[in-house]
5-formyltetrahydrofolate cyclo-ligase (Treponema parvum), 215 residues
Amino acid sequence: MCKSILTHDIDVQKKLLRGQMQKTLKDLLNDDSKVREAAKRAAEFFLNWKFYKEADILMAFVSSKEEINTLRILHEALSDKKKVAVPRVISDTRMDFFYLERDKPFEYQLSPGIFGILEPTELLKRFEVSDAAGKKTTMLVPGLAFSKDGHRIGRGKGFYDGFFSRFLPPVRCGFCFDVQIIPEVPHDNFDANVSHIISESGIIDCADRGRDSEP
């Protein structure tokens, strides 16, 4: 089978999966108390995780209303004196990260971007790959679905895969609800894996074929 047909098949599978996961998430998000409790438990797993505690730099997404909440983690990381960088869409194909400032409220640093998601203003300092030299960097990665072997499917814009082609943090943690962890995710050679997944049920070490990891 030629490469173009295989690529088409994977694209179709991804489109179908995105539709399924969006419906699954919509159903879950109708239960506010369940969503809040899940986000609280997942955040506790992350904040007690060795790769968070050891990190000098935390790169993390600012959650939308359709994602597991990350705001507590962002606040805690700044309180813990870590450098915290969050993403901003720069163009149709590019996303960069900018550092949050510890002494300013988020409402002065974040504003809705082109997709309605809170993004850092361009007045903040941009993350440069050289910043990570000699530093321990951990990234929280969003997604619609993850498999325990580390494959991920996003919303189809390719921003994270593009960023990972420029800088691939050694610890890339998918952060999601339990319902977003599925047996298999369609993928190709251009899709970057995550190294771990954290949900309300705990931590998964993807490099060890899905074995639950110690905090």
